[in-house]
Amino acid sequence: MDKNDNSRLGNTLRNFKFGAAAQLLVTLLGFVSRTVFIRVLGMEYSGVNGLYTSILDVLSLTELGLADVVVYSLYKPLAEGNTDRLAALMGYYKTIYHYIALIVGCIGLALIPVLRLLVKSEIDQFHLVLYYLMFLANSVCSYLLVYKSSIIQADQKRYLISKYTMLFKLLTTLLQITLLLVLRNFTAYLSIQISMTILNNLYVSKKADRMYPFLRERKELPREEKKSLFRDVRHMFSYKAGGQLLNGTDNLYISSMISTATVGIYDNYTMIQTMVVTAFTNTLNQAVLGSIGNLNATGSREQKKQVFDAYSLVFTWIATFCTLSLLALYNPFILVWAGKDWLLPMSTVAVICLNFFLPNVLTPVWSYRNTTGLFRETRNILLYAAAINLVLSYFMGVRWGLTGILAATSVSRLVTSFWFEPYLLHKRIFGCSSTPYFLRQGLHLGVVAVSYGCIAGISAALNFSPWGDMILRAVLCVLIPNALMWVFNRKSAAFAYLQSAVLRKLRRQ
Do residues 413 and 245 touch, judged by C-beta distance below 8 A? Predict the structure, then answer.
């Protein structure tokens, strides 16, 4: 195996370039697919699609924690070229993932009788169960070979996975659009999804075998190492399980307390967020994760803090711009795209945007947590948040409906992980106060509020047509928050570090 001698910055830029290109194509195709979906199948099927996705997200609790621990455990043997240990680790993870597929399948089947309590829909019961089984099959298939992509990611070659994802997503979306237009059938739509999930994992598996031929060797981990890894998985599981319960139960409450059709309306907002924004931030995070892991395995405390501050500035800047753009453009866009029947009140939109901002500004904190082993000390924080959310969602949902259910998520996060995790990272890893970090986040949230006030005021004064108003708001979203972010951050050490890194890269080209 050739060691990866490229610079961390070079690997990050390459991973991001391929990831961003792949995500742009996937986003455009996903938008076209979603448009065809809601026009052909309508609000009820959109709601079922969103609800079942949430149920399977909750079922994925059995896997939570493993993927991050897998990548974390591979950084050091990859850096050292220890192929025997790599082969042993991958063999161990293969066994665990197969057990996970079995557990998810069994639990999923056991939940079938509960569906009638969660789904309030006009679709007949037979088809509701059939669609659920197809969602379950897709989820189970995704676990069988996915473990081999971890070594490619840990080796700072995430861009390869992005290329394969782009190829199969292109094929999936084109086939699904064609079948929707020709057959107008949800079953055919889901069949394509299952087939492409299997083919994608098979292709990545074969590629990993060619890149790392030692994976074919059978090596055994010592019993004590298995116990240590399992302990790390257990710690990460507790954390991730809390996160999944915190984020994945909203649709269950909405469907059971309001209606499954309302899930379909809300799902359009989350779809836009996921395809256009969250997918971009995830692409950036995945691009740098391998380099962050390498840094945390070899760098000094000062280097780690310097890179964290720069990384955090990039993510907070993006989160601020994207949160403001969503807040200002959500309803104008959905109005011209899907029509007024698909709109939510601005109070609900504001809560949706807050639920986007809070976890996204924490992404750098999570990246450092996962690559420093700090997940052992944060394992229960999101379980506490999830427990608070489960209670608050019910009572706030009864009082304020959809807005209350979604606001419960923000409140639960603010009183738990949002303050605790940055505090712990700064104390244990950097050895300094976290106060400046929180002051920066408050400042940037203020930028969102001020920018939206300006945009809403200008929009109301000019009173353009729906298309004209959307274009005006889009231009203002680019100009106002980015200007304010530059003014507030241009003299910071993190901004200077980023500027220097980019200039060095440009001089080499």
Answer: no
How many other C-beta atoms can be found within 10 angstroms of the C-beta atom of residue 155?
25
- Using CB atoms within 10 Å of the CB of residue 23, give its burial: 0 to 12 exposed, 13 to 18 middle, 19+ buried: buried
Cα→Cα distances 392→51, 364, 379, 382, 416, Å: 20, 28, 22, 15, 14
Distance of CA 86 to the CA centre of its chain: 27
Rg, C-alpha atoms of the chain: 23
Q: How far apart are CA 402 and CA 324, in angstroms?
A: 21
Please give the Cα distance from 283 to 366 (Å, whole number): 15
Q: Count the helices and strands in the chain (H runs, E runs).
A: 21, 0
User: What is the rounded distance in angstroms from the CA atom of residue 226 to the CA atom of residue 92?
Assistant: 8
The per-residue pLDDT for 16 is 59
| pTM > 0.90: yes or no | no
CB distance 397 to 253 below 8 Å? yes
Successive 10-residue mean pLDDT values, the chain, 509 residues = 48 60 71 90 92 84 63 80 87 84 90 89 92 94 80 76 79 92 95 93 88 85 80 69 79 92 92 71 64 73 89 92 95 93 96 94 86 74 90 95 96 94 92 94 96 97 94 97 96 91 72
Amino acid letter, 91: G
Q: Hey, how many other C-beta atoms are within 10 angstroms of the C-beta on 258?
A: 17
What are the angstrom distances between the C-alpha of 465 and each of 258, 327, 335, 364?
Answer: 33, 19, 11, 40
- What does the alpha-carbon distance between residue 434 and residue 94 come to, in Å, rounded to a whole number? 39
- How far, in Å, CA of 326 to CA of 277, rounded? 9
The total number of residues shown for the chain amounts to 509
Provide CB contacts within 8 A for 483, sequence distance 6+. none
Q: In this structure, what are the phi and psi dihedrals at residue 362, rounded to the nearest 5 degrees? A: -85, -5
Report the alpha-carbon distance of residue 60 to residue 401 in Å, rounded.
27
Residue type, 223: R
Going by C-alpha positions, the residue among 422, 378, 310, 370 that lies closest to residue 75 is: 370
Scanning the structure block, which residue is given the tokens 């490619």? 152
Q: Distance between CA 375 and CA 457 in Å, rounded?
A: 44
Closest CA to 89 of 212, 235, 238: 212
> Which residues touch 219 (CB under 8 Å, ≥6 apart)?
84, 85, 87, 88, 91
Please check whether residue 244 is in contact with residue 57, taking contact to mean a CB–CB distance below 8 angstroms. yes
Q: What is the greatest pairwise CA distance in the chain?
A: 70
- Report the C-alpha gap between 65 and 87 in whole angstroms: 20
* CA 407/CA 399 separation, integer angstroms: 12
